[in-house]
């Protein structure tokens, strides 16, 4: 069982930046970030493959967010720039137990069912 621990959330003004980190207790395949705002469904934001070369971004964050990973540290990062009030949400780190990037790229979405491991979430609040 892999455990995921997020850090780096907080409050920032619109246009600002935050960097989220997620440390895994063991080896992971595809890793991703989801977010959920109050009253809305959980949305897949970004995903990265095992080797770090394959990535996926939701249209809403393309060009502003960057996902990366350091396999030596079993850690995935989400650099969030040019933040907007609509980015306000609880952000969750997630990981799969097998490679999933081909499926994610083919579908153009990040199905929550692909991800078997979840962190506890970290809050991001962007004020206007």
Explain how this protein is built.
The protein is mainly β and 128 residues long. It has one helix at 101-107, and strands spanning 4-7, 10-13, 18-24, 31-36, 43-48, 55-57, 65-70, 75-80, 89-95, 117-118, 122-127. The strands form two sheets. Strands 2, 4, 5, 6, 9, 10 and 11 form a seven-stranded mixed beta sheet that branches. A hairpin with a 6-residue loop joins β4 and β5. It is globular and about 40 Å long.
Helical fraction: under 10%
Task: Enumerate the spans where pLDDT stays under 50 for 5 or more consecutive residues.
Answer: none
Structural class, judged by helices and strands? mainly beta
Q: What is the C-alpha radius of gyration, as a whole number of Å?
A: 13 Å
Provide the succession of SSEs: EEEEEEEEEHEE
The gross shape turns out to be globular
Main β-sheet description = 7 strands, mixed
Please provide the count of β strands: 11
Mean pLDDT over all positions: 97
N-end to C-end Cα span: 40 Å
Strand fraction equals 35-45%
How would you summarize what this structure contains?
By secondary structure, the chain is mainly beta. It contains 1 helix and 11 strands.
Question: Which descriptors would you attach to this protein?
Answer:
128 residues, mainly beta, seven-stranded mixed sheet, four-stranded antiparallel sheet, 5% helix
SSE inventory with pairings:
Elements: E1 4-7, E2 10-13, E3 18-24, E4 31-36, E5 43-48, E6 55-57, E7 65-70, E8 75-80, E9 89-95, H1 101-107, E10 117-118, E11 122-127
């Amino acid at each position: 069982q892999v455990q995921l621990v997020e850090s780096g959330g907080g409050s920032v003004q619109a246009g600002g930046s935050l960097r989220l980190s997620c440390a895994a207790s063991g080896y992971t395949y595809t890793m991703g970030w989801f977010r959920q705002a109050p009253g809305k469904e959980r949305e897949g934001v970004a995903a990265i493959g095992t080797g770090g070369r394959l990535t996926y971004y939701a249209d809403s964050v393309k060009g502003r967010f960057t996902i990366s990973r350091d396999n030596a540290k079993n850690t995935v990062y989400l650099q969030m720039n040019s933040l907007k009030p609509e980015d306000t949400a609880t952000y969750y780190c997630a990981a799969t137990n097998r490679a999933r990037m081909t499926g994610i790229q083919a579908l153009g979405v990040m199905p929550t069912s692909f991800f078997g491991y979840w962190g506890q979430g970290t809050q991001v609040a962007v004020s206007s």
